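Hey,
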Amino acid sequence: MKYRRKPILVDAIQWTGNNCSEVQEFTKAKIITTKRYIGQPEGFLIEIDSIHEHNLCGIQGDYIIRNEYGEFGCREHDTFEKFYEAVNDNEISE
C-alpha cells in the first residue's frame, strides 16, 4: 500500500542573518543569541527561547515554521523548499 503525505499548512519566515526583529515578531519569543557560524554552510546562527525542552536553533537560510497547533520548528532551506510551496490566501480552503 502506498501513502501520500497530507497537505499541511504552515506559516514560515526565513532567517536571513539580519532579520532578528522580524523573526522575534513572528515567534513572539526572545532571541537568545545570534552569532557567526563557522561550518558548512557558513553564516549566522540564531537561537530562540522556546517553551519546549530545547531552544530553537537555525542557521542563516533556514526557515522557522509555525504549524496549525502554534508549535515552532526549524527546517533547512533545501528541505523546506522541497516539501513546501507558497500559497495565496485565496488558494486556501478550510
